[in-house]
Amino acid sequence: MRISVIGTGYVGLVTGVCLSDIGHLVTCIDLDETKVEKMKKGISPIFEPGLRELMVKNLMENRLSFTTNGEESFLNVDAIYIAVGTPENEDGSANLFYVEEAAKEIARSATKDSIVVIKSTVPVGTNKKIHEVIQLNLRHNVKIDVVSNPEFLREGSAIRDCFQGDRIVIGADTEEAGDLVAEINRPFGVQIYKTDVRSAEMIKYASNAFLATKISFINEISNICELVGANIEDVSEGMGLDKRIGSQFLKAGIGYGGSCFPKDTKALVQLAGNVDYEFELLKGVINVNKKQQGLLIAKLAKFFPSLTGKRIAVLGLAFKPNTDDMREAASILVTEELISLGAHVIAYDPVAVANARTILNPLVAYSKTIEEALEDSDAALILTEWEEITGIDPNLFKKMKKPLVIDGRNCFSLNLIKSHNIEYHSIGRPSVGGVIETARL
User: Fold this and answer.
1) Which residue, of 12, 128, 355, 413, is most buried by count of CB atoms within 10 Å of its CB?
2) Residue 70: its pLDDT value, please?
């Protein structure tokens, strides 16, 4: 089928490339001419394993193209995907400006019956609103159906999620529209779940809110584990053996970040408030996550009453490994707090430094290697579990003035650390080479 995708951010680009790889003729639309020219050459604007290779393959096979001309790309298509950003408003609600602008552009250009697929993450009721926007702005006597098809892509494994996901959710008010979107997605070989539009919209938010809840829950348990002398890894494994609970998202750490969980949890709280419902549980999840991101600073304070002049190595800046995404990353809060306390911060990340420079405090210094970051540092904080970081030789920490490692992602086994002369503190596990009282936040 012929498909146009509006927006080449994370969701739009991955969606468009993967749709082309299963045989569709896909045109991706973006207003940024420089960005479009680079994508035409197979240069991806985001770091995502496997994405560039698929872009190049489908460009060469003439199934994928990029343009700034939305009006031209809407001619003779079977479906138009809206995959633009929905940034967070000050009150936590989703900003639908770009979605509405895309809908207006479609309405002004549509000359034949079409299906608009909303891929962007939007609050319940948005598909209906977008349908109304389109109807108000139509210039020709055509029928436009709007279908909800939320994305469930995980940064760092988005390509695999497209081809090996758990489900594809389709919400449609007409059977014909739902069937067409199902047919588009059928080559992925992933289970298709059809429902009404509002339920599809809610599935996206509810799914992310539940996963965020699991993360905050296990982090609260990890804090209790430190106080009572239990090991969170054993607790998580024992819990996960219960099929009703499952083992995924039960890894303790310094909380979630990224483009989805923080924004979507706050948007769902706002959505509930709009219908006079207090989502107390989710508010607690958000508050726990905020506190958890500052846990390493509280632990560090146990060793240094003052951080003035201390050299602190920060390993990992992206919110998770295998991405250069800095949105809501723990490194933002951690580095800002360290600098405000007078520390000299030397940071390392294998991929995200370019994005970090535009977001983090300008006083943050960057190293090209882990070794350079650790050299003569007073302490090392681990914020992202990159394979390059989890796989380092612990002896490398001995390049520090005195090896003191505070690991926010539980990257190393305690048995491995015990065989080295390193003071090591992690999340919800016994300390090695020293004793630290859990900081009460």
Assistant:
1) 12
2) 85
Residue ranges of E strands in 151-224: 168-171, 192-195
Please give the full DSSP string across 110-122, using - where no structure is assigned: --S-EEEEE-S--
Query: From CA 339, how far away is CA 135, in angstroms rounded?
Result: 52
Q: Kindly report which listed range (44-58, 68-82, 157-171, 305-319) carries the lowest average pLDDT score.
A: 68-82
CATH 3.40.50.720 assigned to domain 294-425? The reply is yes
pTM of the predicted protein model = 0.92
Catalytic residue among 18, 28, 162, 260: 260
Give yes or no: 260 in active site: yes
Domain boundaries along the sequence of the chain: 2-195, 203-291, 294-425
Neighbouring-strand partners of residue 65:
27
By CB atoms closer than 10 A (0-12, 13-18, 19+), residue 99 is: buried
The confidence score (pLDDT) of residue 441 equals 40
Terminal Cα-to-Cα distance of the chain (whole angstroms): 54
Domain 203-291, classified CATH 1.10.1040.10, yes or no: yes
Do residues 291 and 441 make contact, with C-beta atoms less than 8 angstroms apart? yes
Q: Would you say the C-alpha torsion 260, 262, 264, 267 has a positive or negative sign?
A: negative
